[in-house]
Design brief:
By secondary structure, this protein is an all-alpha fold. The chain contains 24 helices and two strands.
Length: 647
Amino acid sequence: MLVATKSRQPSSFAKIPISSWSFAIRVWIATVLALLVSFWLQLEAPSTAALTVAILAEPTRGQALEKAGFRMLATIVGVIASIAITGLFSQTRDLILAAFAVWLGVCVFAAKLLDGNRAYAAVLSGYTVGLIATQQIDYPQNVFEVGMSRGAAITIGILATAAVNDLMFAPNHYPGFVVQLAALHRRVRAYARASLNCDPGSSPIFLQLLRDIVALRPAIASIALDSGSGSVRSAAGRSAVVALVAELQAARIMKVALFDVATRDQKTNIAYNRVDHSGFDERVRAPRADAQLCESGAETETSAWAIKELLRRKDEVRENLLALRSGRGPLRTWRAPLYLPYRTAAESGVRAAIWVAVASAFFVWTGWPATSVSLSFVVLIAALGATTPNPRGFTAMALIGAPIAAVLAGILEFVILDGVDAFPLLAIAMAPFLGGAALLMTSQNLLWSSLGRVNLPFITIFLAPSNPQTYNPQIFLFIFVFILAAAAILLAAQTLIPPVSDHQRRTRLVAAARAELERPRPLKRGSPEEAMFRDASRLEQFISAGGAEDSAALAEMLSCLDQSAMIRFCDAKLTQLADGPLASLAHEARNAIVTHNAEALRAVAGRMREKASSKSSIEADVSTSLLIASELIDRGSRIEHFREASR
């Protein structure tokens, strides 16, 4: 008799997972430890140590260590830049502000070409100058001393975070990463099965899968810091992500190019599902096998080739997952390159520099006292906003979150503490505020998570823990006004000179995809799989810019993705024939690809098929891939003509 069992649910307290409570407690203890050591060493900026803990608040050990390493490196770069800028322009305030705006623009440019903690390190190098050089603009001789003091406090914050994560057994990142990859692999297989079933409505599923896979890329680097075998696991994870994109693309090419010839019979379905064996934690049941066909006709060589290619890609993902679990190197090590939108990054850098210049001009014109503090917050918000898809939205969130953090910090400082100078009481009083913000960060709701991430550092900034603790309402009010003014002025500058629009980003991405397709080049570095991942990252950027709403442009981007993947695959196959008796045919095929001549490709494929010694020979393989490429080129031409006619 079969007994139904409930799926195991994660343990929770007050309907909040225990893992979230553990994370909140770790953040609080690390903050208290950082402050305790800073007070004991009598550092000049103990609040910077606490702020470092808030910034490094990540749920897993590897993520926190990776971010800590980039924070230390970026701080060193920022301190060096601060010394250089103040040393060159110490006699001219306007030139210091101009040089600083240019430096921030360069850092934002770099951030737009990176992702994850690398992008954060780029903007940190920029706003570190704002926190050091700008606030010491009237005392340039103090820049080195302030930089060293900030570096010491950041080091204390990093060591406190690392120690607490180790002592409280913070989870490693790679187990959760493996679970994510396995879940994505199941979804890719379900999409592939739908393609075999000729399901015409699975394009949104493809786009969501592609975005979810590409989104895993920033997390791969943190696996390297989880354990001694972390670097090997990181390489396996990177190869697994690339292989997943290749499997997903193989399923799509089968669906798009072979919709009229693919069949779904019992033999096809069972052949696909039988590959799923001991390498996985789960079994996949074969769908109901029947004689229903997508269209009238029998299974063709092209559909058989497409299914064979899909199975090969599936095996590659399985092997990489096994390598990731066991901590051994992958059979094939792939990079996961990103598409680099240089023009958009450069324009974003220029606009960020202009925003800071406008804010600087405004503060100089007003002549308000201590406006360098407010300008520092302008730089901080502008830099951090550059790592988000919507910089202006991030500024608006800071404008909303700052008053909330100010109210919470005010209650903590003037109601709960109210003149207390004993450190244990300070530590206990901070627990609900820091822990509550950390709990919000773990929420699945994007709004609550964003508010938690904004409030955790802002509460520390407003409280500004010191030894002894100061209770000056005037200073508290000034800090609040400075932050609020910084966010408001930056939002006004971003409204006057808005960030690069989503429409501009989409237009440039489509133009880049079209230009690369019109001028295909032989692979000089990397593999077709790596180039496929790069194209997938470009499509993900297009979707992030609202591309799902532009159906015509989306169809062209998908067509370019399909054609590029197949053309690179054909190029790699033709390379194997370059020195043999079929070299002339391979040359003709390359010319047909360059000119996008589908008829010529079909003719070459037919002649290649005649030379094939068997169905499994390299000639037969190349012939079939050329036929599929010709079909994709035909489909791309129809999409392009339709878009031109609709303009």
